[in-house]
Amino acid sequence: MVDQRSLVQRAQKGDHDAFATLARAAVTRLGPAARLIVRDPELARDAVQEALVSAWRDLPGLRDPDRFDAWLYRLTVNACLAAARSRRRRAIEVDVGVIELREAGDFASAVADRDQLDRALRQLEPQRRALVVMHFYLGFPLPEVAKQLRIPLGTAKSRLNRSMALLRLVVNGDADAAAARVMEGGEPA
Amino acid sequence: MTEDRFAPRLHDLMRELAGNDELYIEDVLARTARTRQRPAWAFVSRWMPTLDTPLVRTMPAGRVLLVAALMAMLVMLLATFALVGGPEPRPPTSVAPVIAERFVMPFEYTIPQGSELAATTVSPQMYALTEGSSTTYPGFGYEPVSNLRGITIAFAAGASTHRAGGRADLRLRPDTLLEDLRGNPTLAVGPLSGTTFGGLAAVRSDVAAVAASGSASYPDLHLDPLASGDTALLALAFPGTLTVAQVDGGLLIVHVWAADAEELEAWLPLAEGLVSSIRFLEEP
User: A-B interface: how many C-beta pairs under 8 angstroms?
Assistant: First the structure.
């Protein structure tokens, strides 16, 4: 079995088959992460495509093949944030309104939970969504997330806490508290 | 629910929410197969490894910035001595020729007398002449957000646009590119007609916006660079025209637009005069 390091080294020398193997493995993680950050399947596909094309083009510049995964995630997150900026300035899709909170008793349904999480994620700024997704979905330690997003660790902690407070309220079904927080300014203090 | 119990639940919910849709990977790989890799020597970190030493990594961020600023000043000082000529000239409001030397295929042109057009070299593959404010997005592209009228000249070694169901590559010939653009549900492409651009045979069409409710597509073109560099985004403005000519290694695309149909009617003779004044300084 070929290890990832040697695949990266072969791809760096122009072996496209090696890159294809890496990309097919990566897209199963990159795609869902991009969809969670961008909240638009079309833009998420674009972002992943941009990231993979950039990865192939700039792979010879990657000094440490063992950092391939982290590097590829950074490219993807940057592409997602660029796509989100592009969507915002075109104003094609505008998320308006507060979270439509259900009664606490409805939260037995997993579908309802998922729907609530979807709405809650849409309330977060794309960079905060990226932070939550990288830490809780992709499993990166917070210092690594801060490094990837190029923000101080303290800022990352603070943003994560604020974002998680909103998500926790919504997913746990604390409807009144979440609604109050959202009405107060979009995110919990 | 405590935070310890909440985090794993959040991960599971996110996994359900993200779903699975990875069928487009083969299209992506087809695109990467057509993309040239940048050579290793083109990356500064490869030949200046001292920038990434343990010492630098452990430096406080402020000090790293100071070192970076000093290095940038040194580079600028050297560049001042090395460069012949100054910054790209802003087109004067006269009939004197202006040279767009940083475009992938340098050209000169003459702007209409009295015009307020201002030039922006968005990237080596995109050059914009606009009246009013414009917005560029380094590493991403250019969008004539609030311009009264303008002209964008772009180079594409490959091109794609949005369609229902995903982004689609456009065939790389002047006529087929415009034909394929009709697949974008937010864009109306008129009949094609023959014309010339910079002494090259070209194909021209009117373009207009279509209100595609519920569509996640956008009226734009993603343009691949000739060699290295970022893929450029050419966000189309309406109403307008697209003129496409074939050159070695790709296509030249000229996009002329105005704020409304009446303005376009007044603008087209001037814009076409400027476009027809374009003379390439090297063989395209």
Answer: 147
Predicted confidence (pLDDT) per residue in A52-71, tens digit? 988 998 898 888 889 898 88
Tokens of B15: 């996994």
- Assigned token pair, A144: 């690594």
- Of A86, A87, A68, which Cα lies nearest the Cα of A4? A68
Name the DSSP class of A137.
I
Rounded CA-CA distance B218/B252 in Å is 21
Q: What was the ipTM of the complex prediction?
A: 0.74
This model's pTM is above 0.90? no
Q: Considering only residues 84 to 113 of chain A, which have any Cβ-Cβ distance to chain B shorter than 8 Å?
A: 85-86, 89-90, 92-93, 110, 113
Q: Are strands B200-209 and B187-189 parallel, antiparallel or unpaired?
A: antiparallel
Map residue B107 onto helix, strand or coil: strand
Q: What is the mean pLDDT of residues A88-109?
A: 42
Chain B interface mutation, best of A21, A30, A53, highest count of B Cβ atoms under 10 Å:
A53
Sign, CA torsion B107/B110/B111/B112: negative
3-state secondary structure of A147: helix
Name B47's Cβ contacts closer than 8 Å, sequence gap at least 6: B41
